Amino acid sequence: MTTTGSRHGLVLDRVRLTYPDGAARLTALDGVSMVVPPGTTTALLGPSGSGKSSLLAVAATLTVPDAGRVVVGGLEVAADGGALPPGRRAELRRTRIGIVFQQHRLLPSLTALEQLTLVAHLQGRRPRTAERRARELLATVGLADEADRRPQTLSGGQRQRVNIARALVNEPDVLLVDEPTSALDHERGEQVVELVTSLTRATGAATLLVSHDASTLGTVDAVARISGGRVLGAPGPALPAPAASAPAGPARRGSARCG
């Protein structure tokens, strides 16, 4: 595996992934190619079973593809069926990849601040540095005043913002966002996507955002569609926001509200 530089975003090059299906193999990804440049957000749309989750798993280095190349932040992590060792890939996820889960997976016994400082501690940051980083991120997502609240006392939108802030603790090269609007109404869903795109531009991360709702994607940089394990053409421009919505534009850091 080779290093091709830093802050090169996410590259998937002719990625093929299959799973055992009895005596045969089921194709989950069929020659998928995609480039997400640093500081941009590409949304991936597709029906259930189209390959969205498989593509995220490959991009997150959780699954090794059968063929093709995967490059994260300039580091080639998989090529021609081979990959970095599991321990090295785990280190990569801890230090250079941020993941926003569809279900927030916040620990119920920890406050919003503690959710983030725990991640920072696991990365070896000193306690004071960890707390400073956590408070900065909570302020950035508009939750400075909610730092001492536990998940059960936060709204769905607020929990999702903690989820996003947690994924940014390690200052990732690549940010992977799985269905961030699935549990939110349309207005809050738009606000979450706007927050993600704003933070992406501010941090320089390359963001791949999986969604089922095209109507919330007015602020992303590009939209790709996947069906049957194939990306249909090159990612195109963002979809226009619905006419009833406010004009699309990047949110100022810390200004987006989604709960």
Task: Name its key features.
disordered N terminus, about 30% helix, about 260 residues, Rossmann fold, globular, 2 domains, alpha/beta, five-stranded antiparallel sheet, 12 strands, seven-stranded mixed sheet
Explain this structure.
It is a single chain. This protein is α/β, with parallel strands linked by helices and 259 residues long. The chain folds into two domains: 1-96 and 174-236, P-loop containing nucleotide triphosphate hydrolases (Rossmann fold, 3-Layer(aba) Sandwich), CATH 3.40.50.300; 105-171, no CATH class. The chain contains six helices and twelve strands. It has helices spanning 52-59, 86-95, 112-122, 127-140, 156-167, 186-203, and strands at residues 10-21, 24-36, 41-45, 67-72, 75-79, 82-83, 97-100, 174-178, 206-211, 222-227, 230-231, 236-237. The strands form two sheets. Strands 3, 7, 8, 9, 10, 11 and 12 form a seven-stranded mixed sheet that branches. Strands 2-1-4-5-6 form a five-stranded antiparallel sheet. Helix 6 links the parallel strand 8 and strand 9 (206-211). Helix 3 (112-122) packs parallel to helix 5 (156-167). It is globular, with a radius of gyration of 18 Å. The protein starts with 9 loop residues before the first strand and ends in a 22-residue tail after the last strand.
